[in-house]
Each structure stands twice: as structure tokens, then as C-alpha cells.
Fold this sequence. Notes:
- This protein is of the alpha+beta class.
- The chain has 3 domains: 9-113, Acyl-CoA dehydrogenase/oxidase, N-terminal domain (Butyryl-Coa Dehydrogenase, subunit A, domain 1, Orthogonal Bundle); 115-209, Butyryl-CoA Dehydrogenase, subunit A, domain 2 (Beta Barrel); 233-384, Butyryl-CoA Dehydrogenase, subunit A, domain 3 (Up-down Bundle).
- The protein is 48% helix and 14% strand.
- It has 12 helices and 8 strands.
- The strands form 2 sheets. The chain has a 4-stranded mixed β-sheet.
- Strand 4 and strand 5 (164-172) form a beta hairpin.
- The radius of gyration is 21 Å and the shape is globular.
- The mean pLDDT is 97.
Amino acid sequence: xxxxxxxxxxxxxxxxxALVPLLQKxxxxxxxNRRMHDEVVEALAEAGMxxxxxxxxxxxxxxxxxxxxxxxxxxxxxxGSVGWTMSVxxxxxxxxxxxxxxxxxxxxxxxxxxxxGTLSPSAExxxxxxxxxxxxxxxxxxxxxxSHWQExxxxxxxxxxxxxxxxxxxxPMSDLQIVDDWHTAGMRGSGSVSTVARDVFVPQHRVxxxxxxxxxxxxxxxxxxxxxxxxPLLGVANASSVGTILGLARAARDTxxxxxxxxxxxxTSYEKQADAPLTHLQxxxxxxxxxxxxxxxxxxxxxxxxKSLTGEPWTLxxxxxxxxxxxxxxxxxxxxxxxxxxxxGGSSIYTSAPIQRIARDVTTVNLHALMLPSTNYxxxxxxxxxxxPNSLYI
Length: 394
């Protein structure tokens, strides 16, 4: 095991900023080939991006979620698919630390290990001697093509055999089959293909009951005193997902202002789009929506990080609000991108215009089941009205 002096938040953000030109260079290639460019993955590793949410005893940084969010926002400013995939890698990577230490030793033995994953129980696990045999398929596995392990969810019998419940397990990618089905409108560069398990054996030490995990009952002895592991899974997942939206909105603003000096408004007297009051209203509204999105993002990461330091338990309302905050970030970020996209005019409809990819990417993220604004607002509203949550994922 190795212990590393963790870089500061500013240092990690600066490293991410330095990668933006490379990500922009390969963004079109990644979209066309439906996967991240190998050069990008190597650059992320060299910059230490894969170590942010890994225990220090394995050479990780144990960065807080505010740091992760700011780093992924910069990466998403370069390419939304890279920012998204990086955020996804940090969530299952963090989840590995919930498992028994024996399982962590296996996974973190690989330097700059990448763990993809899901929370969908679209497989079955049959108990057998020493563990489970898993069969099934999972979709939307971002980063699978460049991952070493996958965190999976499958339905298995409860200990008393009376019913079924979801279990969470860790499986090497070499045990899984890849289905090349990622033909989508947005986030194409994330390579979020499907994976398949056919009679895959998973030893008991790499299996945990998901309901217990969602209740904060983690299995690691060595991580028990680490602030990074004092937060609920969904709170961490929500806080780890805000950066991509913020980065996409910033990318939309960047590309809009890059084109602005050379644009006029066709069929009007405005030879310079920048002179039109309409433009002033548009950029002000979009920028204010970005500010509002950042408020919700910062409130969410502050909640996770502050409570992780103090060990104070989360209330049900805070858990529900964390879902609402990520929903608000998605809604406001998309609204900002939409304004910049509409203000970019007819010349921006060519696929060579970055705003096209940005707009498709931000729409795709908004459709994610755990980020969809309407679903998350409903959940928050139910709790505020004194009703029980209608989701296990809280």
C-alpha cells in the first residue's frame, strides 16, 4: 500500500483546466467513435484524476465532493462526455471503499483503477458455495470500455429466503461481455455500452446487500473513521454528478462568446449581434441561470462535505433535498445551454459547431433517471408534505 500527499483543490482544478485543449481536440472524434480517446484516458491518469475519491492508503487523495465537482466541471467544459464519465468513475470508485477491506485490496491493486457501475438491479444472483453466480445485463455503463472493474446490482434471495432483495457486487471487466449498443443522441463519447454476465461467480467478500448500504451500513473496517465514508450513497452520487452540468453550461457560454464578435443578426439592421438588446437579455438570463445552478451545486456538496467531517447524521429532508438539488442543477444548466444555443443562430446547426454537441449532451444528462428534475422535485415535495418517500434511492 502507498500513502500519497493529496494535491489541493486548486491544484487539481488547474490540472483539469490544463487538459481542456486536449479534450476539445478529441471531442469530435469521441462523439463519432462513441468512446473516449485513449490519449484522453492516459492524460486523465497522468493528471491524477482517477485518484480523487480513492482511500489514501492506496495512493488516493480522498478529495471532497466540492473538489470533485469543480474538477469535473472543468473537464466537461472541454468535453461533456469526459466530464460525465469521470464523475461516473468517481462514484463506483468511492463505492469500492464500502466493501470489506479484502475486496478493496483486490480492486485497488491496479494503479489508477477505473470502476464503472450502475444502481439498476437488472440481473439475478443465485447463491452458491462461497458466493453467488450472476446472470443478467446492465445498460448505460459509462466508461465500460476503459474500466477494470464494474460495480453491479442483481436481485438475490434474502438471508431467510422469504423474498428477494438487491445486492451490490464487484466484478472484473474480464468476466463480463460488452454489447456495443451505444447509439445515442448525446453523451456519445462516454461509451456507455451495455455489459452482460453469463454464469459469473462472485465471491462473498465482493457482495453487499444494497438496502443496508443505502442505510449507511458499510462493511469496511479501515475506512470507518474516514470522513469520505460518512455520507449516504445517494448523497455522494448526487454531489458527484453536478460538475458535468456546470461544465456544459460554461462550455456553451464559452463557444457563444467566441463566435459573437463575428456574428450579425441576419435580416435585421444589427451588423453586430453584440449590439442588440436581445443579446444582452439572453446572455444575462443564461448567466444568471448558471449562477443559480452553481448555488444548488455548492449547497449540495457543502452538505455532503460538512456532514462528512462532523459525522452528523442526515435527516430525511436533507436526503430528499439532495435529489432536488441535482434536479435543479440539471434544469437550470439545461436552460442556460438552451438560451445560448438559440442565440447562436442558424449557422450553429452544423455538426461542426460545438454548441450542437453541448446541447445534446445536456439534454441527455437531464434524462438520467436519478437526475430528472421532475422526478426529484416530486420526491422532495412528498417528504416536505410529510409523506414517506416513494423511492429506495434516497
